[in-house]
Amino acid sequence: MSKGPGEGTPDIEGVLFDIDDTLVDLETAMGRTLHHIAGDAFGHLSDDDWAEYKRLFTTDPQGHYDAFLSGQLTFAEQRLRRARHAQAAFIADPLEGEAAHRWTSAYEATLPLHFRPYDDVMPLLDELQARGVPYGAVSNNVHDYQRAKLDRSGLSRIRVLVGIDAVGVAKPDPAIFHEGARRLGTDPARTLYVGDNPAIDARAADAAGLVGVWLDRRAAGSPATSGASDAPEAGADEAGTAAEGLRRITSLDAVLQFLPSFR
């Protein structure tokens, strides 16, 4: 059973966020990019085929992004392998050699054009700023790549940013959460961490001594939360299991309910 906002929560001094699919709508950006750079070989895909192609790429069922986080692949390699796996289900030509180079170049040039924050991001940051509540981001990607993503999304106001290169580990390791709180200047036990992955964001933040919150955007409008993350998304069954006992919200608007004056 999910916890409601504010339940068992100390007075919050600062807020840290995941970036991808929490602040920045990366899933939509990826989907639009795949459409934009698709060649004639994709002309036969139906709407259902397109949905499955994008699902295979964004969810990364073969775990290539995890291989990047563990140092087995470069960031570019994991993305290309995800593309190969997704394309193999629909087109015969393998994504190798010059074709791979062209695809990678086109993807890298096009993806940033589609970076956008979710509609609930700016109003929340405005309110946190007005209340003097410091905020920042902790991400499972390198600092410079995520810095450029935030800036391109109009989120340059987020100055505290911790990437995996800051402390040499990725979420769910506690050290990366602690570094975020250190840079905010807040007590980890009084620092909220909000992310779209129930396991490596919310539960891992709780385990690290922060106050973890799962942002379940896919269930927006669910009565479970009324009144009360380039990394792939967790599947529905996996998310359901991982979310047991977590604080869960469906919109960033609900973050304010964790602050003392809203409880």
Features:
263 residues, alpha/beta, Rossmann fold, DNA polymerase, domain 1, 2 domains, 6-stranded parallel sheet
Summed up, what is this model?
This protein has 2 domains: 14-25 and 116-262, Rossmann fold (3-Layer(aba) Sandwich), CATH 3.40.50; 26-114, DNA polymerase, domain 1. It has 11 helices and 6 strands.
Describe this structure in words.
It is a single chain. Strands 3-2-1-4-5-6 form a six-stranded parallel beta sheet, sandwiched between helices. It is an alpha/beta fold and 263 residues long. The chain contains eleven helices and six strands. The protein has helices at residues 26-37, 47-59, 64-69, 75-88, 97-110, 121-130, 143-152, 164-167, 174-184, 198-207, 236-242; strands at residues 14-17, 135-138, 160-162, 191-195, 211-215, 247-249. It has two domains: 14-25 and 116-262, HAD superfamily/HAD-like (Rossmann fold), CATH 3.40.50.1000; 26-114, DNA polymerase, domain 1, CATH 1.10.150. Helix 1 packs across helix 5 (97-110) and helix 2 packs antiparallel against helix 4. The protein is elongated, with a radius of gyration of 19 Å.
